[in-house]
Design goal:
Helix content is 28%, strand content 51%. With 144 residues, it is of the alpha+beta class. A seven-stranded antiparallel beta sheet has the order 1-7-6-5-4-3-2. The radius of gyration is 15 Å and the shape is globular.
């Protein structure tokens, strides 16, 4: 599943970059995260989430795989739990000017029980989660 979007940010790009590259801050915008720990070059997170009729705990690892200061970043992640797995690659591109245009693309691969929910259920849930994530980031960066 592929998703993309953009939004306008009324804050300096340096402030957004600082937020995006601080995993502990970004993690506040992901639903259900209960723990985040640095492990080597990446991070391990634990959480609880509901996707359609399936609810439960998950574990995930993620790392920053591409960092172009104040311009672009890519995160890759793999999570397991609730009888399924999710692989994610997400990139955020930060424009210049004021307001700052922020564009993003994400590729999500789902396996196991989660995949059996079907594309329609997974698509609507994933889309809502991604939209909520970026709305939260926007609020935190503009509001602080």
């Amino acid at each position: 599943m592929n998703y993309s979007g953009d939004f306008q940010l009324n804050a300096p790009r340096e402030k957004l970059w600082g937020f995006l590259t601080t995993a502990e801050e970004v993690s506040q915008c992901f639903p259900g995260i209960t723990e985040i720990k640095r492990e080597g070059e990446g991070y391990r997170v634990k959480g609880r989430v509901g996707i359609g009729p399936i609810r439960g705990d998950y574990n995930a690892n993620f790392k920053y795989t591409e960092l172009v200061p104040q311009s672009k970043m890519t995160i890759t992640a793999r999570g397991t739990g609730m009888g399924g797995s999710i692989d994610l690659s997400a990139s955020v591109m930060i424009g210049e000017g004021s307001p700052v245009k922020v564009s993003w693309i994400a590729e999500l691969k789902v396996g196991g029980v989660l995949a059996s929910l079907g594309a329609r259920v997974m698509d609507s849930v994933a889309k809502k989660m991604v939209e909520d994530l970026f709305q939260c980031m926007k609020q935190k960066v503009e509001g602080s």
